[in-house]
């Protein structure tokens, strides 16, 4: 079954948001945030991954979820339209990531949002819960999410990432362009449509290579957070993911007592793009169940 993301499903250009924000995150870093959808609905807060942008959620932000939910997305520090500190310490301190997420929740007045954390976003949610607890969030959707980063073995991180991230973090422009092109080619089980692929290349190249390297230079173990979570956790993962291996989500399911799986056969690292209809339906069900 093909899950090719076609350009007629959604435009590569996201519609204008209903509001945009400059959020002061950890250490005073300026974060770009925006929202779409139903202002009166349950908030859903989307957290993108390594070297990405809030634009990766375009289908969710413009789709049926917008009818019922307040949809908020932001660019992580060092990414997209957010500020990009040049020092590595701005990306290695877990408290700064926690403070970023707390700032978006607080400054936008999000009432117990559902956190949708893709890939590196799993680290950010873990950083947040460790620092702030879970009282201000309603549920978590981990999407191809990473929860541990342990060099040099890099357990549960796949060849699609390990084979490309080092070159993507080098300063030579030709080298890191080639690495990001390879990375995008292995992110999905079926090829992205040309408009989607070129948009993804563009938002990746906005991220300085030194930022990409700094993000993966810390050691992370989120088991302490996962073991004590009491709110609902939906674990969404493509069986064909070579970026963050399915074994990462198997580990989450072993450690987190409130986690339940949603496995996507024939899907890679982008289940929200490769099978949008199912992804949006399951996310809507998760959000609707928050009291």
Automatic annotation (TrEMBL):
InterPro entries in the record: AB_hydrolase_1, AB_hydrolase_fold, AB_hydrolase_sf
Alphabetized UniProt keyword annotations: Hydrolase
GO molecular function: hydrolase activity
Pfam family, one: Abhydrolase_1
Domain of life per record: Bacteria
Segments forming domain AB hydrolase-1: 43-274
GO cellular component: membrane
SUPFAM superfamilies for the chain: alpha/beta-Hydrolases (SSF53474)
Name of the protein this chain belongs to: Pimeloyl-ACP methyl ester carboxylesterase
Organism: Kribbella kalugense
Organism lineage: Bacteria, Bacillati, Actinomycetota, Actinomycetes, Propionibacteriales
């Amino acid at each position: 079954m093909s899950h090719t993301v076609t350009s007629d499903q959604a435009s590569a250009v996201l519609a204008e948001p209903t509001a945009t924000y400059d959020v002061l995150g950890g250490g005073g870093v300026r974060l770009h945030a925006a929202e779409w959808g139903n202002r009166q609905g349950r908030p859903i807060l989307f957290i993108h991954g390594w070297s990405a942008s809030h634009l990766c959620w375009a289908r969710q932000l413009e789709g049926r979820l917008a009818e019922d939910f307040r949809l908020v997305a932001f660019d992580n520090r060092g990414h997209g339209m957010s500020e990009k500190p040049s020092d590595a310490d701005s990306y290695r301190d877990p408290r700064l990531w926690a403070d970023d997420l707390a700032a978006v929740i607080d400054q936008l007045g999000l009432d117990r949002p559902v956190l949708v954390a893709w890939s590196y976003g799993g680290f950010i949610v873990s950083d947040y819960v460790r620092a702030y607890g879970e009282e201000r969030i309603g549920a978590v959707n981990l999407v191809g999410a990473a929860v541990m980063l342990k060099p040099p073995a890099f357990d549960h991180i796949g060849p699609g990432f390990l084979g490309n991230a080092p070159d993507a973090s080098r300063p030579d422009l030709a080298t890191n362009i080639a690495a990001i092109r390879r990375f995008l080619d292995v992110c999905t089980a079926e090829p992205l449509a040309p408009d989607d692929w070129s948009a993804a290349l563009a938002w990746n190249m906005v991220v300085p290579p030194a930022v990409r390297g700094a993000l993966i230079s810390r050691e992370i173990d989120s088991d302490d957070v996962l073991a004590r979570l009491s709110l609902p956790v939906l674990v969404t993962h493509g069986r064909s993911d070579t970026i963050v291996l399915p074994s990462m989500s198997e580990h989450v399911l072993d450690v987190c007592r409130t986690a339940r799986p949603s496995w996507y056969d024939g899907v890679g690292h982008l289940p929200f793009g490769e099978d949008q209809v199912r992804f949006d339906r399951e996310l809507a069900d998760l959000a609707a169940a928050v009291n």
